[in-house]
Amino acid sequence: MSYWRSTFKEFLFMKVIGLIKILDPDAFETYRAQVGTTVTQYGGSVQYRGVKTLMPWNELGCGDFDAFVELQFSDADGARAWVASPEYAALLPVRSKAMRLTLFGMA
Q1: Model's pTM, two decimal places?
Q2: Per the domain annotation, does 95 fall within a domain?
Protein backbone atom coordinates (compact mmCIF):
# COMPACT_ATOMS: atom_id res chain seq x y z
CA MET A 1 0.00 0.00 0.00
CA SER A 2 2.78 2.49 0.81
CA TYR A 3 4.39 1.76 -2.58
CA TRP A 4 1.12 2.59 -4.31
CA ARG A 5 0.74 5.81 -2.36
CA SER A 6 4.29 6.97 -3.05
CA THR A 7 4.22 5.96 -6.72
CA PHE A 8 0.77 7.34 -7.55
CA LYS A 9 0.61 10.19 -5.06
CA GLU A 10 -0.47 12.66 -7.73
CA PHE A 11 -3.72 10.70 -8.16
CA LEU A 12 -4.68 10.71 -4.49
CA PHE A 13 -7.31 13.00 -3.06
CA MET A 14 -9.17 13.33 0.21
CA LYS A 15 -12.87 12.61 0.55
CA VAL A 16 -14.64 14.08 3.56
CA ILE A 17 -17.92 12.42 4.47
CA GLY A 18 -20.48 14.03 6.75
CA LEU A 19 -23.31 12.11 8.42
CA ILE A 20 -26.03 14.59 9.35
CA LYS A 21 -28.89 14.45 11.87
CA ILE A 22 -31.11 17.44 11.06
CA LEU A 23 -32.46 19.28 14.12
CA ASP A 24 -33.81 22.49 12.56
CA PRO A 25 -34.68 22.38 8.84
CA ASP A 26 -34.61 26.18 8.41
CA ALA A 27 -31.20 26.50 10.05
CA PHE A 28 -30.01 23.52 8.00
CA GLU A 29 -30.94 25.28 4.75
CA THR A 30 -29.14 28.44 5.94
CA TYR A 31 -26.01 26.42 6.70
CA ARG A 32 -26.24 24.43 3.48
CA ALA A 33 -26.52 27.61 1.41
CA GLN A 34 -23.26 28.96 2.88
CA VAL A 35 -20.95 26.01 3.55
CA GLY A 36 -20.13 25.23 -0.09
CA THR A 37 -18.38 28.59 -0.49
CA THR A 38 -16.10 27.82 2.45
CA VAL A 39 -15.24 24.43 0.95
CA THR A 40 -14.25 25.93 -2.42
CA GLN A 41 -12.08 28.57 -0.72
CA TYR A 42 -9.83 25.70 0.44
CA GLY A 43 -9.68 23.82 -2.85
CA GLY A 44 -12.57 21.48 -2.18
CA SER A 45 -15.87 20.75 -3.83
CA VAL A 46 -19.23 19.33 -2.82
CA GLN A 47 -19.45 16.08 -4.76
CA TYR A 48 -22.78 14.75 -3.56
CA ARG A 49 -25.58 15.44 -1.11
CA GLY A 50 -28.23 12.89 -0.29
CA VAL A 51 -30.55 11.35 2.25
CA LYS A 52 -30.26 8.03 4.03
CA THR A 53 -32.70 5.53 2.57
CA LEU A 54 -31.30 2.23 3.84
CA MET A 55 -29.04 1.12 6.68
CA PRO A 56 -29.03 -2.68 6.79
CA TRP A 57 -26.11 -2.92 9.26
CA ASN A 58 -24.86 -0.69 12.02
CA GLU A 59 -22.37 -2.85 13.88
CA LEU A 60 -20.26 0.16 14.87
CA GLY A 61 -23.19 1.81 16.63
CA CYS A 62 -23.26 4.92 14.47
CA GLY A 63 -25.88 7.38 15.66
CA ASP A 64 -28.97 7.86 13.57
CA PHE A 65 -28.64 10.31 10.70
CA ASP A 66 -30.96 11.73 8.03
CA ALA A 67 -28.61 12.95 5.32
CA PHE A 68 -25.01 12.90 4.17
CA VAL A 69 -22.57 14.97 2.20
CA GLU A 70 -19.47 13.98 0.26
CA LEU A 71 -16.74 16.59 -0.18
CA GLN A 72 -13.53 16.22 -2.14
CA PHE A 73 -10.21 17.99 -1.58
CA SER A 74 -7.01 17.60 -3.58
CA ASP A 75 -5.21 16.48 -0.42
CA ALA A 76 -5.57 16.07 3.34
CA ASP A 77 -3.90 19.44 4.00
CA GLY A 78 -6.71 21.24 2.14
CA ALA A 79 -9.36 19.36 4.13
CA ARG A 80 -7.61 20.13 7.43
CA ALA A 81 -7.21 23.80 6.50
CA TRP A 82 -10.92 24.03 5.68
CA VAL A 83 -12.03 22.44 8.97
CA ALA A 84 -9.78 24.83 10.95
CA SER A 85 -10.59 27.92 8.85
CA PRO A 86 -12.14 31.12 10.21
CA GLU A 87 -14.69 30.98 7.39
CA TYR A 88 -15.95 27.59 8.50
CA ALA A 89 -15.74 28.57 12.18
CA ALA A 90 -18.13 31.43 11.44
CA LEU A 91 -20.76 28.85 10.43
CA LEU A 92 -20.50 26.79 13.63
CA PRO A 93 -23.28 28.61 15.52
CA VAL A 94 -25.82 27.97 12.75
CA ARG A 95 -24.48 24.44 12.25
CA SER A 96 -24.98 23.67 15.95
CA LYS A 97 -28.59 24.81 15.69
CA ALA A 98 -29.17 23.01 12.39
CA MET A 99 -27.73 19.56 13.00
CA ARG A 100 -25.54 17.06 14.72
CA LEU A 101 -22.64 16.05 12.51
CA THR A 102 -20.13 13.25 12.23
CA LEU A 103 -17.35 14.24 9.84
CA PHE A 104 -14.50 11.99 8.70
CA GLY A 105 -11.91 11.86 5.96
CA MET A 106 -10.93 9.04 3.63
CA ALA A 107 -7.97 8.92 1.27
Answers
A1: 0.86
A2: yes
